[in-house]
Design a protein that fits this description.
Blueprint (H helix, E strand, L loop, with lengths): L11 E2 L13 E5 L5 E5 L8 E3 L1 H12 L7
Antiparallel strand pairs: 1-2, 2-3, 3-4
Length: 72
Amino acid sequence: MPAPVPPGLEWRKSSFSQGNGGGDGCVEVAFHPDGGVAVRDTKDRSLAPHRYTAAEWDAFVAGVRAGEFDHG
């Protein structure tokens, strides 16, 4: 069972999502008070969000910045 997400988190959507059909095909992130990060699907917010530790999120962001997920 996924870890519960505390109520009152501020969910943020990427500024890049605006060009994708009005922003319906993206994800949102929220930062937990303990430093973790929750990620959810904007199209179906009723689904449980994925939760990551601060270290996991930092590694993901570093990979994005380094181009590790670029196609081609």
